[in-house]
Amino acid sequence: MPPPRKVPPLSAEHKALGDVLLKLRRRADLTQEQLAELAETDLKQVGCIERGTRNPSYSTLVRLAVALGTRVGTITVKADRLFDSRKRRLARD
């Protein structure tokens, strides 16, 4: 396996969304490959979204949510909360 690339997230918001999707995927005990197959998307896209280096379309988010047994709204609310908590923590430091 090649070493991970050092591409930074598109934004802190994209990083939060990716972190939420990663957590949900692990909670569902799925690999990236399994999630990609269930969501009918590309494996590379799943990895890039989880790293925050890709901006997913709404339809991709819907397919990922369905594959994870949740809703897009749930994912985005969790991502918003994570982003806000990180922003508050940075403001305190």
Question: How would you portray this structure in words?
Answer:
- The chain is globular and about 40 Å long.
- It has helices spanning 12-27, 32-38, 43-51, 58-68, 72-92.
- The longest helix has 21 residues, at 72-92.
- It has 93 residues and is mostly helical.
Low-confidence stretches: none
What is the radius of gyration computed over CA atoms, rounded to a whole number of angstroms?
A: 13 Å
Range of strand content? under 5%
Helix content, binned percent:
55-70%
Largest sheet: none
The dominant shape is globular
Calculate the terminal CA-CA distance, rounded to whole Å: 37 Å
Beta strands, count: 0
Order of helices and strands: HHHHH
Number of DSSP helical runs: 5
Structure class: mainly alpha
Instruction: Estimate the mean pLDDT confidence.
Output: 93
Layout of secondary structure:
Layout: H1 12-27, H2 32-38, H3 43-51, H4 58-68, H5 72-92
What brief labels describe this structure?
mainly alpha, globular, 93 residues, 69% helix
In short:
Helix content is 69%, strand content 0%.
